[in-house]
Design brief:
By secondary structure, this protein is an alpha/beta fold. About 50% of the residues lie in helices and about 10% in strands. It has one domain: TIM Barrel, CATH 3.20.20. It contains 15 helices and nine strands. A seven-stranded parallel β-sheet has the order 1-4-5-6-7-8-9. The chain has a two-stranded antiparallel ribbon with strand order 2-3. Helix 12 links the parallel strand 7 and strand 8. Helix 8 crosses helix 9. It is globular, with a radius of gyration of 19 Å.
């Protein structure tokens, strides 16, 4: 096994200021790559791809072959947990994920954690395969969605613009909604622990919709569940690095950092760099935060912003990433240019 000191990302997560920042990109395996589209077509559909260890391993490795990222993130999806709990899930072209919604405590009877690991066993096999197939200096990242974000999809039944159904339940019956959140907290701890046992060296918790909550309930539905997950994982794996990604939460990110116990925090595109360096990087390593649309447009604007991020956050423990995931319209050559710029910092 490669030692921690040989893995740039693990060094940055330990608080070291590295010669150049390690980099990886959220959704680095995805539709912008022609080889991914070919593999997905071979799998048949998105869920089949997630549950096929050989093909999921292949798409995880594809961006590493092209760009030499310092980390590989398991190819899976945040909605595999609700699917494993028994909630019907489909991915429809042009619509994204569609679930049979759960909207009241009586609906929770349809869900059961009893067979969660049977359903998710292919995911653990993918992690195991990756732990021996990624490059020796590459860090393997496991991940899950945060309970609030996963619950949003479960309750709304798809992506949402107004979050009416989940907020109505959370505000109107916090005790009943809390039962769903408890189920998700416990399932997420168990799911991530299995990923670590299979070979994941770092885990990231994605809370994409954390920013839709007002501050008076942010603690209850974002901070507290994440804190419980971190504590549950650390009970089993005391040294495990955990990255939190509470997207769009503004100043609430300081409470998130101070109270959850995460090792590092991933910054969304809207987080000001100087503020992040002063208020966050003084507390823990940070990750981020190039606008994914700059990666689409490329050119001088992209290059200027990459250098600004490196100049501002590269003075502390830092992992270069995007402020959210790569989008399908991204030209692969722009990702190659990003990789070249970051690697040039080491020369």
């Amino acid at each position: 096994m490669t030692k921690t000191e040989d893995k740039l990302m693990l060094r940055a997560l330990s608080g070291e200021i590295t010669t150049r920042p390690p980099f990886w990109l959220m959704r680095q395996a995805g539709r912008y790559l022609p080889e991914y589209r070919e593999t997905r077509a071979e799998a048949g559909n998105f869920l089949d791809l997630c549950y096929n260890p050989k093909l999921a391993e292949e798409v995880t490795l594809q961006p590493l072959r092209r760009y030499g990222m310092d980390a590989a993130i398991l190819f899976a999806d945040i909605l595999l947990i609700p699917h494993a709990l028994g909630q019907p899930l489909a991915y429809r072209e042009g619509e994204g994920p569609v679930l049979d919604p759960v909207r009241k405590r009586e609906d929770l009877k349809k869900l059961s954690p009893e067979f969660i690991h049977t359903t998710l066993e292919p995911v653990y096999e993918t992690v195991s395969r990756l732990s021996s197939s990624i490059p020796a200096d590459c860090t393997l990242i496991g991940f899950a969605g945060a309970p609030w974000t996963v619950a949003t999809y479960m309750v709304e039944g798809r992506g949402s613009k107004d979050y009416v159904n989940i907020k109505k339940w959370a505000y109107g019956d916090p005790e009943g909604f809390g039962l769903l959140m408890d189920m998700l907290v416990d399932s997420t701890i168990s799911y991530l622990a299995k990923q670590v046992e299979a070979g994941a060296e770092v885990v990231q918790i994605f809370d994409t919709w954390a920013g839709v909550l007002p501050d008076d309930v942010f603690h209850k539905w974002v901070i507290e569940p994440t804190k419980r997950i971190v504590e549950g994982l650390r009970h089993q794996f005391p040294e495990l690095p955990v990255i939190g990604f509470p997207k769009g939460v503004g100043g609430n990110i300081i409470d998130f950092v101070e109270e959850t116990g995460v090792t590092a925090v991933s910054l969304d595109t809207g987080t000001p760099l100087d503020w992040a360096a002063r208020e966050l990087q003084s507390r823990l390593p940070v990750q981020g935060n190039l606008d994914p649309i700059l990666l689409v447009s490329g050119g001088a604007a992209m290059e200027t912003r990459i250098h600004k991020i490196l100049d501002t956050l590269g003075k502390g423990p830092f992992i270069f990433n995007l402020g959210h995931g790569i989008i399908p319209q991204t030209p692969p050559e722009h990702v190659a240019e990003l990789s070249r710029i970051i690697r040039h910092r080491a020369t």
